[in-house]
Amino acid sequence: MRSLTTRATAAEFGWVGGRRGLESRIVAAAGIPLDRLILRTLRSTDVSIHLALDPARLAASVPQATVLLARRRPAVVFTTGGYVAIPILTAAATLRIPSVLWEGNVVPGRSVRAVARLASVVALSFAATADRLDPGHPTFVTGTPIRDPETIDREEARERLEIPAGLRALLVFGGSQAVSRFNAAVAGALPRLVERMAVVHVTGDAGYADALAAREALPPEMRARYLPHAFLRDEMTAALAAADLVVGRAGSSTLAEVAAFGVPMVVVPYPHAAGHQRANARVLVETGAATLVEDADFDADALVAATGILDDPRRHLEASAAARALGRPGAADAVAELVLALAERRPLPDQAAIDRLATRRSS
């Protein structure tokens, strides 16, 4: 949204969500009008009445979305997929409202595959995704919109996070998906890790107390090298800027941010969700920007072994360069350009123009 408001200062926004998710709290706090469709999800795994009701809710959401868009008459619709995209893009196509659908994974989700042809334009994080969609449909490789890596200086970031001077910094975060696997690996490897580096560790609420106890169990002279945090929200940009190596999952935003900062990565794909994260990870692995460790193999010994790249300056430099070459720090501007071109009824830019915006290269 920041890129859109920078380019179109008079733009007005509205948000449409479902009955699940964080919209009711986050969107309202941002001062954006929120409408919620009746749909909930199609992912009910328990045997309950929702197995029958959820498809019915989805069907009922189509006329609901049509009425909503007919009343609001937006200049353009933007969606990031998910089941809300099905009624929204169906309604937008019916009302001839232009739309942009963004897909962040190499393997598109079911909802994206179902309705991508209804969108005016599909924006992608990975070029390989286009091969999995309808041929001939307008697609652009924009990358994944992320926090701006140019907003913080590396040394300032290290000072803010209290990383001891002169030490390499390892950042470990597992996101919300099976973070306990990461916490157990750090706990088992911690004495060996802090001998060689500082460790910034995002534990989640459940693992934070154990991490504090593990820090107290270290020799006093080593405790400052272990920096656990329950969460890093606004400080995540600083952590990425300060890191020399990142260990994390393979969500689209994680990979995009790590690449934009030019940091090598040890990627441990979440083993479920139809293997989407493994496909995402392969893009970085094949270029040399990341090392892949399967979730089932990720333990303390695997973590220590993976950090060996920090002891090999040439390998680390090559991996950093590979990551930086993949980075698209201006992806938000590229997506905003597509949205505004449709809203203003301008001709769409070509891929070369999108590449210049996404990579922040001058023409």
Task: Give a verbal description of the structure.
The protein has 363 residues and is α/β, with parallel strands linked by helices. It has two domains: 2-145 and 330-359, Rossmann fold; 150-326, Rossmann fold (3-Layer(aba) Sandwich), CATH 3.40.50. The protein contains 15 helices and twelve strands. It has helices at residues 2-7, 23-29, 50-72, 85-94, 110-115, 154-160, 179-194, 205-217, 236-242, 252-260, 276-287, 300-306, 313-326, 331-343, 351-359; strands at residues 15-17, 34-36, 77-79, 99-103, 121-124, 139-141, 169-173, 198-202, 226-229, 245-248, 265-267, 290-292. It has a six-stranded parallel β-sheet, sandwiched between helices. Strands 3-4-5-6 form a four-stranded parallel β-sheet, with helices on both faces. The chain has a two-stranded parallel sheet with strand order 1-2. Strand 11, helix 11 and strand 12 (290-292) form a beta-alpha-beta unit. Helix 6 (154-160) packs across helix 9 and helix 7 crosses helix 12. The longest helix is centred in the first third of the chain and has 23 residues, at 50-72. The two termini are 25 Å apart. 42% of the residues are buried. The mean pLDDT is 92.
